[in-house]
């Protein structure tokens, strides 16, 4: 189960970083959405990693 959480969190984190880069070059909505997605994805990955211990 934690592998699924890790994969979903990683995808959120990756897409969040992509949106941050696009938002830094253009639209502010992409920047804020990317920041929120990156934080959510990072929390999801941390939850999956620390839940195993």
What characteristics describe this protein?
mainly alpha; elongated
Describe this entry's structure for a reader.
- It is built from two helices and no strands.
- The chain is an all-alpha fold and 53 residues long.
- Helix 1 packs antiparallel against helix 2 (28-51).
- The two termini are 14 Å apart.
- The relative contact order is 0.25.
Write the layout of secondary structure elements.
Elements: H1 2-25, H2 28-51
Please provide the count of β strands: 0
Terminal CA distance reads: 14 Å
Number of helices: 2
State the secondary-structure class.
mainly alpha
What is the arithmetic mean of pLDDT?
Answer: 89
| Cα-based radius of gyration, to the nearest Å | 12 Å
Element-by-element helix/strand order: HH
Strand content: under 5%
Helix content: over 70%
Low-confidence stretches: none
Which term fits the overall shape?
A: elongated
Q: Note the main sheet.
A: none
Please sum up the structure shown.
This protein has helices at 2-25, 28-51.
């Amino acid at each position: 189960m934690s592998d699924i959480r890790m994969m979903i969190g990683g995808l959120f984190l990756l897409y969040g970083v992509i949106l941050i880069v696009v938002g830094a070059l253009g639209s502010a909505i992409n920047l804020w959405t990317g920041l929120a997605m990156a934080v959510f994805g990072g929390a999801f990955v941390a939850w999956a990693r620390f839940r195993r211990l």
